[in-house]
């Protein structure tokens, strides 16, 4: 099999319109993924454009502190990725993990490649909200989202509009589409995007103040 090529190129802050068979995403990106994916899909997904329809959201019943985490799929050279790393370290230490997608054969790259192949994203950072208590993917956010209140509500109550078959996709705070999966297949998706990636991810904690 011919090796997959991954190129992350700085292209300036421009609006990128990405047309796929199911979804049109329009958002500002500084870094763009270029290349194809050879990752085998563990589960079939369908992607729909436009603001997600109202859907019953999972409640926070049974969720304890730390049950929801965020996987930041990105690169260390991406300024928006670094901005989100700093944001989570400062505001939600221990709740987010940075996953470097430039490392060949890493679980982080596999997860990002799957989302690219599915037409969900082509830019970094791509952030995945994971609920460990239910083994579910609750939301996918593309680009920077540095709203403390938004994230506080997501950690406590879940991402609005998510359930066992519907995953909302956001560009920043703006809902732009949904990922749909068949009933009973959420666990496979969670394993790829959330569970497996922990092996190669860096937990983001607040830096120790050596002067204190």
Placed side by side, the strands forming the largest sheet appear as 3-9-8-7-6-4-5-10
Describe the global form.
Answer: globular
Q: Averaging pLDDT over every residue, what do you get? A: 78
Distance from N terminus to C terminus (CA atoms, Å) equals 54 Å
Radius of gyration: 16 Å
Number of helices: 4
User: How many domains, in number, for the residues?
Assistant: 1
Q: Specify the helix fraction band.
A: 10-25%
Biggest pleated sheet: 8 strands, mixed
Structural class: alpha+beta
Proportion of residues in extended strands: 25-35%
- What is the string of helix and strand elements? EEEEHEHEEHEEHE
Report on the architecture of this protein.
By secondary structure, this protein is of the alpha+beta class. It has one domain (about 5-205). It is about 20% helix and about 35% strand. The chain contains four helices and ten strands, in the order ββββαβαββαββαβ. The chain has helices spanning about 80-90, 105-115, 150-155, 185-195, and strands spanning about 5-20, 25-35, 45-50, 70-75, 95-100, 125-130, 135-140, 165-170, 175-180, 200-205. It has an eight-stranded mixed sheet with strand order 3-9-8-7-6-4-5-10, with helices on both faces. The protein is globular. The N and C termini lie far apart (about 55 Å). Residues about 1-40 and about 55-60 have low confidence and may be disordered.
């Amino acid at each position: 099999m011919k090796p997959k090529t991954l190129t992350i190129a700085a292209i300036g802050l421009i609006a990128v319109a990405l047309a796929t068979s199911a979804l049109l995403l329009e958002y500002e990106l500084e870094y763009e993924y270029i290349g194809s994916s050879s990752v085998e899909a563990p589960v079939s997904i369908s992607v729909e454009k436009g603001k997600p329809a109202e859907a019953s959201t999972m409640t926070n019943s049974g969720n304890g502190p730390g049950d929801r985490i965020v996987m930041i799929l990105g690169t260390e050279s991406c300024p928006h990725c670094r901005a989100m790393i700093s944001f989570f370290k400062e505001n939600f230490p221990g709740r987010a993990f940075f996953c470097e997608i430039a490392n060949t054969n890493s679980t982080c790259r596999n997860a990002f490649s799957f989302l690219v192949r599915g037409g969900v994203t082509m830019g970094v950072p791509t952030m995945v909200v994971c609920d460990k208590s239910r083994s579910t993917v609750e939301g996918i956010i593309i680009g920077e989202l540095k709203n403390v209140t938004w994230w506080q509500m997501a950690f406590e109550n879940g991402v609005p509009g998510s359930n066992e078959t519907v995953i909302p996709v956001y560009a920043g705070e703006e809902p732009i589409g949904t990922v749909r999966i068949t009933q009973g297949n959420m666990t496979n998706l969670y394993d790829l995007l959330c569970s497996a990636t922990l092996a190669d991810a860096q937990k983001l904690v607040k830096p120790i103040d050596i002067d204190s």
